[in-house]
Write a structure and sequence with these properties.
mainly alpha; Rossmann fold; Arc Repressor Mutant, subunit A; 5 domains; 44 helices; about 5% strand; elongated; Tscrpt_reg_LuxR_C; Sig_transdc_resp-reg_C-effctor
């Protein structure tokens, strides 16, 4: 039968019920074909695309088919960062020289969408051929596929035995009634083997109307009740049928549990048990009950033929129900060690072993999310709330699953809150490893909810717990240690604790390098971005150059996992006033903007790009659109708005509206806010006030030293204020300090954000005093001042200027309409537009803003509040 897989068609599938030898035939073909290839067995139902591609990549890597640089070498990490599985597979397969055969045993176990994508890949790649087995109809049975590709299907009649083959298996005459019975049952090879083994010709009359499952069950009953010689073997098959795959160690343990052997005796005879189990599995293969096959690591695992396993498992569950939970638990633990976390998790959930389920999640949450998202929702459907309240790892897994698509944000926030509650309840009794993970859960869930201040406490405690852990404690973390460090460090970034953040990211990178964990690459990306955001250009550039020499999982550099790399590149480009380069780097992250938690940082960078180009309205529109979009996702918290207030303040200053800029900063006092207010004072030509605000900021209590960026902005504004005040000696000292710091930190934006009059005064001083600028891009002709003067008439339309001129002389909208000879509705429409530009909501606020901008000297306090008319 194996020769039937040798056709020239790109796709050949053998589809038949269990018992027709599909897998054996394909295995025989695979062992003799000259084409290079890999064999994958589909064990889970409804396997998702990401899991299938990862399984295929693992097998190809184990087979030595992936050369250095092939994106499939880091397929798991690439997909964790958001890479499309099928684009990744195509790129990887194109890098494999020569034709490649892919043998998929049980293709009907793939989700239908995965089957379709696999067919598309075969269609697109002329060097790829697919051979598969299936027990039921699949996408490969769709007639329309034959319209644009060649495909062959081997069905039960094609795989059935001939009368001669059946007679040879049973060692009887081809014209025997027993052969006729086999042929009447479709010529199934397993049918013939079972007849030859257990029934004999004398039992033939009793077979009429029997199905193959009936016969398998009959085979088991007869063998268990017949000669004692076979009883140990059949007891062994019964005990081990609970496992979809196994090695000799697992098989021996299952037999030990099923036969209730004492643990001490079992330990003493472990090597003998292992050897005995191996021999029994070899016998099972020889009798056609299953197959040995190498897994991705090269170790051999045994899998029963599905029909045989199902029949024996039915018997096991019926006869030994008390042992089944322990047997399933043993299989789950083996699956976890073998690298099959979802299978382990599924079996733990089946018997409500929530402690073990939590252990699986703690060690493999990233793999589970990447490969089994929809399956996780279904797996935990109906899980009692009491379980989720006491098992935070499970609740956090569900929160992350619902959060990552962006379409179930409200449900995700509910799970995040429940995870925090569960984590707090469990902390006291948890191990150190568990406490470290629980605190990471708390800080991450608070942070993605926008509660940055509340997220700091769990991050600090978790980080300290991790640092105090022994090497054995860290072993309990599995592959998650770099991820935990990255989570703590990210919270430190948003808390303004850059030094602590960089220390955490550096540890993540070191652990990743030492243990071969790609989570350390994310630590490197976070370090580079943090340095660039903080204004430490030289160090950021050095890390970016280091990153460019490393092998990154496909898609990481433009996805969430490496998002701080393009952000760092964008920030460094902005410091060189290269808006186009910054824009290119930022746009590479657009596919992830809906769900990425770093959207406030990206929105700030977007605003700076627009301001450098002089597109003030575009900057305002982009920022508001981003806030509106994120607000729909419940991702905007007051703390986030306060941070973006400084961005909005810059935009309003660029629009020439210091009143709106001051309002955008809000009433919250901070060192960063003081710098923003000092900038507004310079716009209003109040240098003494600006200096007082900057001096007051020095005395403002802070939990961390100021960043290089804030120092640069402070120094540049001081230089501007000093230059305006005319004290030449002090101004020269301040200006020299500012330019030296900007040169050393490779910054430019701090100078570009100095108000125009103060900036002109600084450069005049540079020329008079003969100060060295050092860097060409910091020269007078290269610095693109982005702050407007206080009378930006070009920012208003002629109709708005007429409205501005008339507004102080009228007291009602009706008077305003009469003075302008327009309708009342038109006045209301034009006022809305003007108020929006000014960033105000009332006539009094509008007059105050216009007075601050120098358009009018009217005192808004002269206008009674009772004359404030609504628009509608």
């Amino acid at each position: 039968m194996s020769s039937r897989f040798d056709g020239a068609e790109p796709i050949i599938v053998a589809r038949a019920p269990a018992g027709y030898g599909k897998t054996v035939a394909m295995a025989q073909w695979a062992s003799t074909t000259a084409t290079s290839g890999v064999w994958v067995r589909i064990r889970d139902r409804e396997m998702e695309s990401a899991e299938f591609v990862e399984l295929l990549a693992d097998e190809m890597r184990a087979a030595g088919l992936l050369e250095d640089g092939n994106p499939l070498r880091l397929a798991s990490e690439a997909m964790a960062g958001g890479a499309d599985p099928w684009q990744l597979l195509r790129r990887g397969l194109r890098g494999v020289p020569g034709p490649l055969a892919l043998a998929v045993d049980g293709i009907d176990g793939l989700r239908r969408s995965t089957q379709l994508a696999l067919v598309d890949a075969v269609r697109d790649l002329s060097t790829l051929e697919l051979r598969a087995t299936a027990r039921k109809r699949t996408v490969l049975d769709e007639p329309a596929l034959a319209l644009d590709m060649e495909l062959a299907t081997l069905e039960a009649p094609d795989l059935a035995l001939t009368a001669e083959e059946a007679a040879r298996i049973m060692a009887v005459d081809p014209h025997s009634d027993l052969v006729n019975e086999v042929m009447a049952h479709g010529g199934a090879p397993l049918f013939a083997k079972l007849l030859a083994t257990s029934l004999g010709e004398a039992a033939q009359p009793a077979l009429s109307g029997r199905t193959l499952p009936d016969l398998v069950d009959s085979f088991i009953r007869l063998q268990l009740e017949s000669s004692p010689v076979d009883e140990p073997f059949l007891r062994f098959v019964t005990a081990t049928s609970i496992a979809e795959a196994m090695d000799p160690d697992l098989a021996a343990r299952l037999l030990r549990i099923a036969t209730r052997r004492p643990a001490g005796e079992a330990k003493a005879d472990a090597s003998e048990e292992r050897a005995s189990a191996r021999a029994l599995l070899d016998r099972a293969e020889a009798e056609g009950l299953g197959l040995w096959s190498p897994d991705a690591t090269g170790a051999a695992t045994f899998t029963y033929t599905p029909l045989i396993r199902e029949a024996f498992e039915r018997r096991l569950r019926a006869e030994q129900p008390r042992e089944v939970p322990e047997l399933v638990g043993a299989v789950a633990r083996w699956e976890l060690r073998a690298g099959h976390p979802f299978s382990a998790l599924r079996q733990a959930v089946e018997f409500h072993d929530w402690t073990f389920a939590s252990r699986v999640v703690r060690m493999h949450w990233n793999d589970l999310l990447r490969n089994h998202g929809p399956q996780l929702r279904e797996l935990f459907r109906g899980t009692p709330l009491s379980v989720l309240r006491t098992h935070p790892f499970l609740t956090m897994l569900l929160a992350l699953e619902y959060n990552r698509t962006g379409r179930s944000r409200l449900r995700a926030l509910e799970y995040f809150a429940l995870a925090r509650y569960a984590a707090r309840k469990q902390r006291a009794s948890a191990s150190r490893a568990d406490r470290a993970v629980l605190r990471a859960i708390e800080t991450a869930s608070l942070r993605v909810s926008g509660r940055f201040d509340a997220a700091l406490g769990p991050a600090v405690e978790g980080y300290e717990t991790l640092l105090a852990m022994s090497p054995s404690d860290r072993d309990d973390l599995g592959r998650t240690e770099p991820t935990l460090l990255n989570q703590y460090g990210t919270t430190f970034v948003y808390a303004g604790l850059d030094e602590e953040a960089l220390a955490a990211f550096s540890r993540s990178t070191a652990v990743g390098e030492a243990r071969g964990l790609t989570g350390g690459l994310q630590g490197l990306a976070l370090s580079a971005g943090t340095l660039a955001i903080a204004g430490d250009g030289p160090e950021a550039r050095a890390l970016l150059e280091q990153a460019s020499r490393l092998e990154w999982p496909d898609g990481w550099l433009t996805g969430y996992m490496g998002s701080f790399i393009p952000l760092a590149e964008a920030m460094l480009a902005l410091e060189a006033f290269d808006a186009d380069a910054a824009e290119r780097h930022l746009r590479s992250l657009d596919p992830h903007r809906e769900t990425i938690e770093h959207w406030p940082l990206l929105a700030h960078a977007d605003a700076l790009v627009s301001l450098l180009r002089g597109e003030v309205d575009q900057a305002r529109f982009r920022l508001q659109a981003e806030i509106t979009s994120q607000n729909r996702r419940r991702a905007v918290a007051p703390e986030t708005l306060a941070r973006l207030g400084r961005t909005s303040s810059l935009i309003e200053l660029a629009a020439g509206n210091p009143h709106a800029a001051e309002k955008a900063l809000g009433k919250r006092q901070s060192a960063g806010g003081a710098v923003g207010r000092a900038r507004i004072s310079l716009v209003r030509d109040r240098p003494e006030e600006a200096l007082r605000l900057l001096l007051a900021a020095e005395r403002h209590p802070a939990r961390a030293r100021p960043s290089s960026r804030r120092i640069a902005e402070d120094l540049a504004l001081r230089a501007g204020a000093m230059a305006l005040l005319g004290n030449e000696e002090r101004a020269v000292t301040a200006t020299r300090a500012a330019f030296e710091f900007l040169r050393e930190r490779r910054q430019g934006m701090a100078l570009a954000m100095v108000p125009p009059k103060a900036l002109d005064a600084v450069f005049s001083l540079v020329e008079r005093a003969g100060l060295a600028v050092h860097d060409a891009h910091l020269s007078r002709g290269r610095v693109p001042g982005i702050i407007a003067s206080t009378r930006p008439k070009s920012a208003f339309t002629p109709r708005e200027l007429a409205l501005i001129e008339t507004l102080p002389r009228t007291r009602t909208n009706t008077e305003l309409a009469q003075a302008l000879s327009i309708s009342l509705n038109t006045v209301k429409t034009q006022l809305r537009g003007l108020y929006r530009k000014l960033g105000v909501g009332t006539r009094a606020e509008a007059l105050a803003a216009l007075a601050a901008m120098g358009f009018t000297s009217a005192d808004p306090d002269d206008i009674p509040a009772r004359l404030e008319e609504p628009f509608e």
